[in-house]
Amino acid sequence: MFAFLLTLLVLIGIFLCVIILLQAGKGGGLAAMGGGATATEGVLGGRQATTFLTRATWVAGAAFMFISLVLSVLSSRTGQPDSILLDDFGAPTQPAPVLPGTEGPPAEAAPPGEAPPAGPPPEEL
């Protein structure tokens, strides 16, 4: 489901870019708002006739925003684990105990009453 919606979002984005690039400029843009009655009439004037490209832009833009919202909700629900202390299988992770003075495998078991060696033998100079 997530992969399908993501693919659909990419296709709608490409479609939206093509539709926007096909539209003719309305003239002047922000530079036309500098002054004069003609600029004000253009902005505050009557409603312009909507073309197919304008309607397609609105529909594609709304679909893009809706699918983006759905994908963000889906990814936020599945992306976070229940706890940072749990591994992928749900079992708590515990580090291996570290004993002071041991650097390798555990020392051989000493007979009762005798202490195990403290560490590696000292090196000769």
Kindly describe this structure:
The chain has helices at residues 2-22, 37-44, 52-79. With 125 residues, the protein is an all-alpha fold. It is built from three helices and no strands. It is rod-shaped, with a radius of gyration of 35 Å. It has a domain at 1-24 and 51-75. Helix 1 (2-22) packs antiparallel against helix 3.
Q: Kindly report the average pLDDT value.
A: 72
Shape: rod-shaped
Ranges where pLDDT stays below 50 over 5 or more residues in a row are none
Assign a percent range to the helix content: 40-55%
> Structural class of the secondary elements?
mainly alpha
The end-to-end distance, rounded to whole angstroms, is 69 Å
Number of strands: 0
User: How would a textbook summarize the main sheet?
Assistant: none
Strand content: under 5%
What Rg, in angstroms, do the CA atoms define?
Answer: 35 Å
Query: How do the SSEs run, as a string of H and E?
Result: HHH
Q: Tally the helices: what do you get?
A: 3
Summary tags:
mainly alpha; 125 residues
Question: In terms of topology, how is this protein built?
Answer:
Elements: H1 2-22, H2 37-44, H3 52-79
Helix pairs in contact: 1-3
Brief sketch in words of this structure:
With 125 residues, the chain is mostly helical. It has helices at residues 2-22, 37-44, 52-79.
